[in-house]
Amino acid sequence: MHKLLCFLAATALFLGTGASAVAQDPSGAREGLPPRVQGWSKTAIETAGSLPIQDGGRVKPLSTFAKFTLLRLNGRSTAKDNEGNPLSAMEWLLDVMVDPARANQYPVFQVQDSAAVHSLGLSVANKKRRDRWSFDELRPGMPKLFEFAHDYSSIDAKVRTSVQQQVIQLAEAVDIYLGLAGFLDFARAELRPLTKGGMLADEFGTESLTFTDVVRRAGDLGDISERLQNSTDPLAREASAELGHMLRAVSELGRSSLHMAMQPPDAELNIREAWHTPGEMLMTAFNGAVLTRLEMDSLVALEQLGDSLQDDGRIDMDQADAALAAVAGATKPLAAARGETRRLDLEVTYYKLDLLTYSLVAFVLAFLVTAFSWLRPGKTALARVSFGLVTTGTLLLCAAIAIRCVIRERPPVSTLYETLLFVTATGALIGLFAEWANKKRIALAATAVLGMVGLFLANGYETLDKKDTMPSLVAVLDTNFWLATHVTTITIGYAAGMFAALLASVYLIARSFRRRAQNPELFGALARMTYGTLCFGLVFSLVGTILGGIWANDSWGRFWGWDPKENGALLICISQVAILHARMGGYLKEIGIAVASAFGGTIVAFSWFGTNLLGVGLHSYGFTSGISQALWTYYGIQWGICLLGAVALVRESRPAPAPEARSKSAFEPRTTT
Amino acid sequence: MTAVRSIGQLLLRFFSSFGLSVALLVLLGLLTFLGTLAQVDRGLYDVQKSYFESLFLVHYVGGIGIPLPGGNLVLGLLAVNLVVGGLWRLRNRKNVGGIVVVHIGILMLFAAGLVKLKDSDDGHTTLYEGDEKAYFQSYHVNELALLKPQADGRLEVRTLDALAFESPKSGLPVRVPIEGVPFDLEVTRYFINANVRPKGPMFNAPTPVIDGVFADPLPQDAQNERNGAAAYVDVIAKDGTRQSGLVWIYDTAPWTFTVGGETYALDLRRKRFDMPFRVKLEEFRKEDHPRTGMPRWFSSDVAVQKGATSRLVTISMNEPLREDGLVLYQASWGPSDARPGDRLFSTLAVVRNPSDQWPLYACIVIAVGLVWHFGRKLIRHLSREVART
Questions:
Q1: Where is the domain boundary, A170, A185, A200?
Q2: What is the end-to-end Cα distance of chain A in Å, rounded?
């Protein structure tokens, strides 16, 4: 972090020098820009979106890169331009790359507390406390932003104030933005013309050089420099100095294009080599290597893309379309030869289909229809519609998970985000099975609620985390065998635990309104489903926890280390085993088991997310900042529901107003286990 | 006789009861939860020892101490409860085959844990490329090593576990008689964590200054591996003369002294364990995910030398080497700031655990038992539900 912020400070200085004046000219940023009359063509957006880029350790579509970059800056994956028109992430990224002076006016820097911006000496008079700021609005505070961020980064993260933390985050966001906005500087910037009729112009055969010309002639530069230095011509000294100026300018431009690696190296040369940025290609050429035809084509195409911004501030869309197609033509074949584009189109399709949103809609509708069907108990058609909607939501969710598995060639769960999807899908499947076995529409409603909440949380987590949800994994996690066995198993255990807690919560809420004897069938069915889900959960929690120990034994040399995440899993097992033993011993009856199961939901939540918040142990790899509030809310709700159960128990312990038929409880201990 | 029998039956009933099971499970859950939270301030190692590998402990909430049974006591009682209630009492019951199998599996896990606790060693061996070692050293336990050069150039080594003077019952100093040498050792001061630094003219040293340096005590670090112990040791010859020395875990060379014309060296170091073979790091390899600092994989090619034979083995993440009762894991590497071409070192975690693979067998047994028991219950439940609807 410290090194990063030193770099940020350097970037700020770089900004201050006006070295990338094309992108960040402070004087002309607002003035002289014509209104946007034409958006990016559909072809341009689709072509650009499908371009491959190496980022975060993997090759992904540029549309994915745009989505998560914008999410990180803006807190959502869409933006608005300076006139309030909506922009997709890809349109925003194209604007930032090709027309940064315009994009500098888009309010895309989300600031949670305006005090952070105020601390930079900027006026916050016309802004809300939580608002979005444009680069141009933040520009006057930039020097202080990087200075403060540098200072605050040396403070332990645990004791930083909220404002300090936000200043650091804002500085990081601005740095990312500068990297994007400066990416095509090399294409836009005109190198100073060479002296007309001078020795250097003779050497190059032209007076007007571009970045690409220099890259193309890089192999000759050493010879040219040597000739000039050895020449006795008095003008050679001047030409040599001119060459030095030009190379410094080109190097600066190359440095501003280091943020996006869109050029795959030739597979025949080195399959493991990282992808290149234009700046790195320049350095490669300076080091004497000859760029391939496709590499040169790609540079020229990017140059054309940057050049599509006209002097009057408009973008030549035809030229931009052609340039993007040329970039695709120059990069995709090389990426394909390296076997890195196999799932690229599928990933573009995955985000375009947006299956998770449709799944969420289906669950919401299912819940509404189910609730309505309770008011009209005789209408079986409504129940069928509800079942169909829950099934549709579940299938869409399963399809999304399956596509993610294919894209990353991994089992379904490898990140905390994916646990949310998988727990929701597994819970929904358990619910559908329970509904199939016991057609009371209770499990159906619970499944719809679980689907809604699960997908809502997944969406919230993605927004909070602001990172690619299909990231590269650290070495110890990068094992499909253990991801498929331990992680999948324990996550099914989480799902069952949460679903059992949900069913138990429904039981307790219903029981707080009605005595058991008033509807023994309903309470009996709920109790049986809770118990069954609990047993199902125990199988997977216990086996999953032990499998985790075996994995740890093969990775770290110990089966059990009392690490928080291990303890969390153990707590789930202990709680479920304790409930079953208490039932067997007759200590917990129906309502007691419901209270314990509802409480068990908080144990699952603690194990799932709470242990990561502690920030200790070998498993502390998940980002969970901001999760705390949601977690405490859930704890509060569940504990409140447990209290309802206690109140119901006390109430029912008093004599009933009328004789009640005694019915056999599903939780009554039987003669066998 | 009847009274004895009734007491026996009472005990049997108590130890086989569901009440005891539930109480112990709740206690274990509470202990696990409190031990997890305590790690934030106290670190894993300390909590592991005081909460989970103890008979009793005192947990403090807002300065108020709450006595609790420790992990060893709770797990020990649970094991008894499991045997008496979960196996013996169920022996004549019907339809409990799956449950019995699960309980056997859990007992196997308990047994694995007990063996690991009582009869295992763990540590690491860190090797630069080209280095070879035939020992590994503990992450946590320290020892005093008395070294005496032999005529053939080898060292005669006598070691004393630091546990003997880390928390002595009668306090320091602790006198340590050593056989075969004409002197005793006396540990006069011992610090779990200290910094040894030169005594300057402008301040007073809180501890004795020896050869211009003194041990500056530091607070104990929650991460035990970071604690660097230091000890003041007196060498007491048979005639009663004393020589005082200061030894520190991070010393680059041991303290040397002479008694009766013989030279000895004393070293405070991490406890070492001999391996029945030598390992030589031939090459350490690592690869990051492209354009990130995140490791994709790393592995060590080591030559395992036993006698005159040597064979090359690759140890990588999730793929350890199991050899002669020891297991060697790829743990870490360094230096973290190495540049291309720099000599790298690899740290291999080494464990000697006779119950290494028992959890795997237990897992299979438990899975079979659970599927057997709950599968049977599910089928019975479904047929009832189908009949009902």
A1: A185
A2: 56
